Structures are given as C-alpha cells and as structure tokens.
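Notebook, p. 212. Picked up where the previous page left off. The plan for this session was modest: take the two constructs that came back from the sequencing core last week, fold each one, and keep the raw output in the notebook itself so nobody has to go hunting through shared drives later. Recording the first one now, exactly as returned: residue sequence, then the structure token string.
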Amino acid sequence: MKRSKILWGIIALVVCGSLVSGWTAEVVKTKPDQKGCNTCHKDFQSILPPKHPPMDNVTSMPCLSCHLPKLDGKAEPNKFSALLHRSHMMINARQDCIACHKSEENKTFGIPGYNGSIGVPAATTMKLLKKIFASWTESSYLDGLHGKRGVTCSSCHGKELPVADVTVENERCLSCHGSYEKLASKTVPKQFPDRNPHKNHFIQGDTACTICHNAHGASQVYCLDCHKNFKMKIAGGSNKTRKL
C-alpha cells in the first residue's frame, strides 16, 4: 500500500509538471495501459541494466513513474527517451509507433497512461515520423549523430509533433551549441585560420544554420559553392559542391 501511494504521488508530480509546461494531461483513472513492456518482453528483467531495481508487473506506468516524461520541449538531451526510442527503432527490432503510443488519426497522439495529446497527426504525418525516426536511429546524418547523444525530436522541434517541411530556428541550435562566437572558436582551421566557416564575410549570425546543416539529409558546406578549392569537412554530410 505504501509503495502504491508513493507511485501515484510521483505520477501526480508528472501531471502538475505537464500542466505547467502547457501540455494538458491527467493520469488515467481507469486501469493502467495494458500494452506494457511485458507484452513483448516476457523476461523483462534481462533487458534492464544490472543495477536496475527489480520490476515485477511491467507496464508503461512503473517506467514513467521514475523516468518522468519531459513535456516542456526544452532544447536539451533526453537520454531515457532517446534510448527507449532508438532501441525499438533499430532495423532488427523496428516497431510501429502505436505499439507503445496511443494514437487516433486526426484526434490524438499521446503517452500511455495519460489523458491528453502531444499532437494531432494525420496518416501522412505518422508515415513521415516513422521514416524520420528510422533515420534518427541509425543514419550518419545529423539526426543520427544527435540521437546517439540523447537528443530527441522535441529537443529540436519543441513540444509539437514535427510535420513536413518544418524548419528549426537558429536560436534552437545555439541554445545547445552556444553563440556564433563560441562556435567560431571551435572551428578555426589550423592551416588557414581566416577560412572559418562560422566567422567569415558572409555568415554574420542572421544566416540560417540549416543553410549548411541538414538534420535528415546530407549536410553540405555553403562556402564550397564559390570556394571550390577549399577543403572543409562537415559532420553528417558531404564535402562536395552543393547542388542548387
């Protein structure tokens, strides 16, 4: 009984935090989600870290009572969410989103165990999200590089589910990577210090980061459009001349 009270107390804190962040949520007062972890993982304890407390009745609720959902959309890593999603989206274990999430087309998409929605996806949006999650899990693009460091969709896109053709503003990138000045200090070429991609005659802080950095595709150095003899590498992309 005492353990049960503690569990529901933690869940109540999750709800309060969700309401403050602007996401309408409340604990489901009926039975907890039945599509729990043990639906697929019969020996659930074997996939947990060695020092993890024993888990007997494994549904989604016990996990979320300790690993609190981050619903504020802050630009920061969420290692638990990233690990959970990446492990279920690896090519040898790829799952459909609704295997764990509750979803109703054009009405709601949410977290099991909670009433409320974190988006209203259409079928086309869900199809796109599945494709993007697969790339985020295993690609060599920026999405894959971010995924390995615990950066999830909301870290870049905020609280709302991303849709087709959505972009990320510079402020979102810089909130994690620091100012242009800080970036420039990290990218000074050893041989030609004046050929700094983050401090040059063109980029002065108003140019979109996405002009070079593409999250879900190959990034390409904008400088190479004109300076074709420059040797510049970029994470998650190609060093070839951009195709305009």
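Okay, moving on. Second construct, recorded in the same format:
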Amino acid sequence: MLSLKGVYKRYGSNEVVRGMDLELRPGECYGLLGPNGAGKTTTLRLALGLTEPDCGEITLLGEPVPKRAREARLRLGVVPQADNLDPDFTVSENLLVYGRYFGLSEGQIRARIPQLLDFAGLTLRAQSRIQALSGGMKRRLALARALVNDPDLIFLDEPSTGLDPQARHLIWERLRQLLGQGKTILLTTHFMDEAERLCNRLSVMDRGRLICTGSPQELVASQIEPQVVEVFGDGAGDWARDHGDRLCQRCEKTGETVFCYTREGEPILRTLEGREDLRYLHRRANLEDVFLKLTGRDLRD
C-alpha cells in the first residue's frame, strides 16, 4: 500500500527525514508517533508526493512517487491536521465540490452523499454552513470528505486533536468501521490511547528516524518495565532518594511526581504505606511510558 526505502529530506542544514524505511500492509492501521518536529508531517508529504525527497524510493498504491503521485492520490483519502473545509459552502456542497477533484460525475457524488453524511452523523446538518458546526462535526465532515472517492488508503494527520472525549470516541468508532471494511489507514497522533486502540502496528519517530516498530503490546513488553508506581507530593523527591534506586529498575522525577518503573511493585508500595504526605498510583506500563522513555520528557517547540 505504501513503501518508503532509504528516504532522506533536508531543509538547509536541518535533516528532517533520515533514512526512512516504512511499509504499510493492506487492511492495517499503522501509527506514526513522535514529538513535535520529529518529521511526521514531512513524511506524510513525501508519501503524498507533495514534497520531493533528496534521495530514496517511494511507492504509493503501486505508483512511483513523486513521478506518478497524482495518479496514486486518486485512490487516496486525506484528513489533514488543520481544518480546510470551505466556509462558503454547506456540508453537502463541501462533499460535492471535493468529489469533482477526483473526476467523479455530479450524479456519482450525489449518490454517495447520503451514505457519507450518515457515516459522519451529519444527516440533519446537510444544509448547514461550516461556521455553524462544532469542532467535532468539522472533523467528522473532514473524514467523510476523505471517503468521497472510496479510497483504498486513508492518511489521517492527528484526526482527533482538539476534540472532547465524546467526539474522539465517535471518530474512533468510525475508524474501526473503516478498518472492518478492509481500508488501510496511516495515522499520526499525539494521543497514546488512540494509537493503542486503533493501531495494528506503529513506529515511534524522533529527529527524522524510526526508533522502533511493532504492535502496541509488543513495544510495551519489549521497551519498558511492566509496572509503574507514580508518587506525588512535596516529599516525593526525598522518598525517591531513600528508596527509588534501591527498589526501582528506573526512576524519573518530573515536577512533584516521581515515576518508578519496576518489575515488582509490592516492595515500593510497602514503603508508601502510612505516608500521609504522599499520594501514589500503581498501574501497568503503557504506550505513553514507552514514548516518553524513547523521546524524553522535554518540551519540543
């Protein structure tokens, strides 16, 4: 469905994508995770043929990119990170106009519009202007618009950013429906729970390189200790100095919170019993722990 082999892209002295090797299998949801500036959006632009690589080979839906990117994009759906719906048109008109870009006749598009509106939960909003829609409605419309040409492959660039929990869960439900129909999805996201719920495989990307690839379960099992104890409070630092290195495989302090990564949580919990100055949370390790271990806790601008 998509193949990148040895792809590099540099802007001036900044090497944004460095030796990218990536392959998508038919019918899977593949996640691309990384902090801001990791190179995710540039990777999508390279795959779409919107940015030309400095070197390497890209094949999209059997077509060489960028040479025949236009032909490949006819079988592709894209939900961009930023809202680019046309405010001059109604909900239905946005679908109609967009469908024309793919060479579909007006009759073909109008026949698909009721199904797309139903999929997006916007049937009663068909004649609404874009300005009258909530953020969740706009994202659902952007997803429906990406399906107007019945694509084989869908690129989703942070599709649930800025949505409330209800809207996010509805988007996830719709994406699972698409996967059930045999569609292939490439997803970038900052929500680790989104990646865990949707992705068959994913890669963590940082500074232009893929650091690791596997299923969410495989990465949690292979990259991180199985249990985490989070200790909160003003005395967390003192507690960590007394007990952290002795009882944890790895201990990290961020603000007033100490994260203890361990194979066995019970010895740590015993030291916290009766400590009224501290609060704590004992849980299993998750994909966010893996992400932070591999890319660090520092903010990226």
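Notes on construct two before I forget. Residues 82 and 167 are 17 Å apart (CA to CA).
Flagging for discussion at group meeting.
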